[in-house]
Description:
By secondary structure, this protein is an alpha/beta fold. It has helices spanning 14-28, 53-61, 77-80, 89-98, 129-152, and strands spanning 2-8, 35-41, 83-86, 105-106.
Amino acid sequence: MKKVLFVCLGNICRSPLAEALFNKHVANRGLQQEYMADSCGTAAYHIGEEPDPRSRANARANGLEYTHRARQIGLADFDEFDYIIPMDASNMANLQLLHPNPKATLKLMRDFDPGHEGTNVPDPYFGGERGFQEVFELLDRATAALLEHLQQTKKVGP
Ligand code: 4NP
């Protein structure tokens, strides 16, 4: 079982959607026994909240229903998860400050978005509707590519 943790700032827009889209790809490929995903935020502002209603409405329009309760990252997450996937460089910097030597592999979400390696998943929180659709499409693509990468690099038996 590989455990993947998606991280953003508030854990109400980008990372819960990334978690839901990753889970969708896992289910579509029948790999539920092999992967577990979760999401969290680096900040504490929205602890306990459900995902942003604009994110959920946009996802619903694209045929995806999901829910989540926002939580903040804790030190135990760095040992609990195999992969920690921050949405942007600022989230990455905060994670590296929190834990300089984690067991988990840290990698930016868009390092799995072909042609957009090293760039940020834009934060739709302060933007308009178009931002949510853009983020949905790029996370749909990047989480599918992440899953494909994990499948390709899977260690085979001892
Ligand atoms: P997220 O978006 O990091 O994608 O969940 C944000 C949500 C809330 C805030 C910032 C970003 N905020 O400043 O409250």
